[in-house]
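Notes from the 1:1 (GR / supervisor)

We went over the backlog. Supervisor wanted to see one worked example end to end before approving the batch request, so GR pasted a single chain during the call. The sequence is below; no edits were made to it. Supervisor asked that the structure be written out right there so they could see what the output format looks like.
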Amino acid sequence: MNFLKKLLGAIKVFFERVPLMKVILKQLGIAVVIIIILVFLITKWLNVSTNHGEFKTVPDLAKLSFEDAKAKLEENELNYFIQDTINYNPDYPAFSIIEQHPKAGKKVKEGRKIYLKINPSKYREVSVPHVIQITRRTAESTLKAVGFKVEKVTYKDNIGKDMVLGMKYKGKDIKPNDRLPKMSKIELILGNGKRPDQSSTDENDNDAGE
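Structure output shown during the call:
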């Protein structure tokens, strides 16, 4: 009898709790539906705001003028940003696109910024280093390090053999700290190891011998 009473009591308790379970399950179901709807709406918003799935091919802008490059980017619904350019490249027209990032052919999102570098109109100017009274070898290395070229070497009477006595650019004398375009060709004036009066003395000795 006791067992039967306990069983009946358990059944009564279970049925008393069923309505509460139904309420809990109903609330959980509503919460799940709301979450699904929110996830769907957020996904749609992200697709619209980021142009999901809409890619553009980056055009080749090399050697184009800025205006032509700008028009080409606008045609492809891409933006641009101009970066500073220091070095002049003689293989590219002045004021043309010398570098771009991302590279041509890359797939990017619509509205992506393409970073551009524009070729200057000429080499930038740099200061002529101090190479007077040093050896030819050291002077050539120093000039080359800052971007100059030694085009010609001229000797004159001076006891400092291969010692730099002066410099010229396009036939005109130049001095340290003058500013010239990078890659300029410089002429070095060097000593030949003879005293200024030695050449005339040698000539007189040759005449006396004759």
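Supervisor's comment: Helices lie at 2-49, 66-75, 136-145, 198-209.
Batch request approved.
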